[in-house]
Amino acid sequence: MTGTIGEPDLETAARRRAEDLYAKDRTCELLGIDLRDAGPGRATVGMRVAETMVNGHGTGHGGFLFLLADAAFAFACNTHGPATVAQGRRSPSSARPRWATTSSRRRWSAAGSAAAVCTT
Q: What is the spatial distance between Cα 112 and Cα 43, in angstroms, rounded to a whole number?
C-alpha cells in the first residue's frame, strides 16, 4: 500500500518513526537493545543477555526483561504519528507482548538472548 506522491507508505512511515526514536534512546544503546522490526502498531526488539544481567538463580533478571518489553511497547506506540508516552497503570502484559528466547528450556540466561514483540 502506498501513499500519495511524495508520501511514504504506512509501513515505511511507521518504521521510520520507530527508527528515529530508537536513534535517540540512550538506554537501548547502553544495554545493546536492537530494534529488529517495526510497523504500524508493532515493534520487535532484542537484547543479548550479558553476565551482568543475570540474577542469583543464573537466569536473566526480570528487571531487564521488563525493560525490554517497555522498549518494544514504546517503539510500537510511536509508529502511528505524534509522540506517545504511556501513562496510568498499563503494564507490559496488557500490551500483548510475546517473548522468545534462544537459550535452552525457554529460559533466558547469560548464554542466550531475549526478544520482545509488542502490538498495540
A: 21
